[in-house]
Q: What sequence folds into this?
């Protein structure tokens, strides 16, 4: 019997800080992902040209969406990594239970999501500068090029929320697969089956978030979904540990 | 993609990948401590944060070469008629007198004439134009020609004023109307990210942004009262306005 009573929160915070130190090297993979995103953003996102015989008009459109897409791919990779066996073995040296372990992972994922959201949006500023100085700036329309502070903050918040959502989905998927490896086959099969049976399914699911114009409702939707997904992950992990 | 930048960036990435594979990672491992990682993350974030005021300064109006010319072309809102149909500005002869004022007058010319006959010479260019002729109340021996252009948009860029007017010449009663060959207009646009656009429903949608509307061009000719018109082009091109 231990004389010290340690609270769940204290253990969780210790685990979180321990993992933050242990996984801090993952920052380099984020930087590489964002640099790759920057590289792929150099080309026009869409281009259009048109003529009416005497006049020919062409327009190339650029944006930094690819940067965020690379960051989203990175957070999926990180979420999957956190629950993998080699990374879980890091916890052996710590006082731990499934709840503290998952909660510390989730807080770590949130930290990474916010950092990735912050840096990918700011990387968009670098992207704008590069585009103006590399391309013929005399042809540039300036309306979307300058980014106001409110747009920057909005971009950071929304990027972070999307990263949290994707991270939560990837984390749950990984936990399900950890429960039984067969799910590695079943889940994609069910997903593809659903897509074939209900062709609008994925589209509706995505537009549920992407077509939301109210920031408050969007934040609510993302946070509620993430809490639900993380909750499911904790519940499944707990069942798995109890069974063992 | 810039033709020089792409290969350079690719070379940098390939070089980095090669070095990593060749065993740089074990050597770097000595330096990869959580403290160094944290410092590196801080520096990365700090540099990116610094870029924001720098970009705000460099991209502000009037500093960079980018240009007030194009900036002035931006439409806050497209004319409703334009968004409804590209043919809206195709005027009928009944409405030309009332609606011509809504169009941009790109040129005006006056010709003194000795003959009482105006011959409209045929040309392929005429197919892109509408020609309206109105008789004046008097025989003043003068032909007045105005060229008009309806709003022309590429996305929210109103390039109406960049379109050159048709070249019009009159020789021995023969009027020749030719479109001036024009260099192509090239625009580059940087759109806000979808994370920002999602909450700005007032922003133009992508479909509109990628649409070019040329509208129509009108040549409006006022002729002396008793002048005879000979149309050598297709019959529908020249319309008499009462």
A:
């Amino acid at each position: 019997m231990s004389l010290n009573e340690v609270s769940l929160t204290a253990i969780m915070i210790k685990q979180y800080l321990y993992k933050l130190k242990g996984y801090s090297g993952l920052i380099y993979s984020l930087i590489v992902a964002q640099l790759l995103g920057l590289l792929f953003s150099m080309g026009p996102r869409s281009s259009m040209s048109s003529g009416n015989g005497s006049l020919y008009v062409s327009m190339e459109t650029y944006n930094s969406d690819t940067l965020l897409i690379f960051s989203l791919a990175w957070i999926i990779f990180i979420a999957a990594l956190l629950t993998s066996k080699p990374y879980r073995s890091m916890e052996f040296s710590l006082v731990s239970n499934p709840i503290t372990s998952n909660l510390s992972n989730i807080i770590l994922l949130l930290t990474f999501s916010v950092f990735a959201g912050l840096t990918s949006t700011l990387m968009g500023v670098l992207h704008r500068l590069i585009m103006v100085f590399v391309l013929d700036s005399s042809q540039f329309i300036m309306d979307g090029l300058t980014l106001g502070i409110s747009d920057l903050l909005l971009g950071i918040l929304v990027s972070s929320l999307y990263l949290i959502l994707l991270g939560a989905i990837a984390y749950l998927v990984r936990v399900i697969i950890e429960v039984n490896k067969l799910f590695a086959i079943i889940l994609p099969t069910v997903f593809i089956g659903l897509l074939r049976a209900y062709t609008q399914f994925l589209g509706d699911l995505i537009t549920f978030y992407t077509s939301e114009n109210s920031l408050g409702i969007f934040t609510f939707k993302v946070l509620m979904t993430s809490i639900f997904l993380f909750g499911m992950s904790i519940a499944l992990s707990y069942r798995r540990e109890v069974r063992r | 993609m810039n033709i020089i930048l792409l290969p350079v960036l690719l070379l940098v990435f390939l070089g980095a990948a090669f070095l990593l594979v060749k065993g740089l990672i074990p050597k770097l491992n000595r330096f990869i401590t959580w403290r160094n990682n944290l410092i590196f993350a801080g520096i990365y974030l700090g540099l990116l944060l610094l870029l924001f005021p720098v970009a705000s300064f460099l991209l502000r109006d009037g500093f960079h070469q980018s240009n007030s010319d194009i900036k002035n072309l931006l439409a806050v809102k497209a004319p409703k008629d334009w968004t409804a149909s590209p043919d809206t500005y195709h005027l009928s002869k009944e409405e030309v007198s009332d609606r011509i004022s809504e169009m941009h007058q790109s040129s005006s010319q006056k010709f003194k004439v000795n003959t009482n006959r105006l011959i409209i010479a045929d040309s392929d260019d005429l197919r892109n134009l509408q020609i309206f002729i109105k008789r004046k109340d008097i025989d003043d021996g003068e032909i007045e020609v105005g060229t008009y252009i309806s709003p022309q948009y590429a996305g929210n860029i109103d390039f109406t004023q960049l379109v050159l007017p048709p070249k019009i010449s009159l020789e021995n009663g023969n009027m020749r109307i030719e479109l001036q060959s024009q260099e192509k207009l090239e625009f580059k646009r940087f759109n806000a990210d979808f994370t920002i656009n999602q909450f700005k429903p007032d922003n133009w949608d992508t479909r509109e942004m990628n649409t070019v509307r040329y509208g129509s061009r009108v040549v409006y000719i006022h002729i002396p009262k008793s002048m005879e018109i000979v149309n050598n082009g297709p019959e529908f091109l020249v319309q008499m306005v009462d």
User: Anything to note?
Assistant: Residues 40 and 114 of chain B are 84 Å apart (CA to CA). The mean pLDDT of chain B is 77. The longest strand of chain B covers residues 104-112.
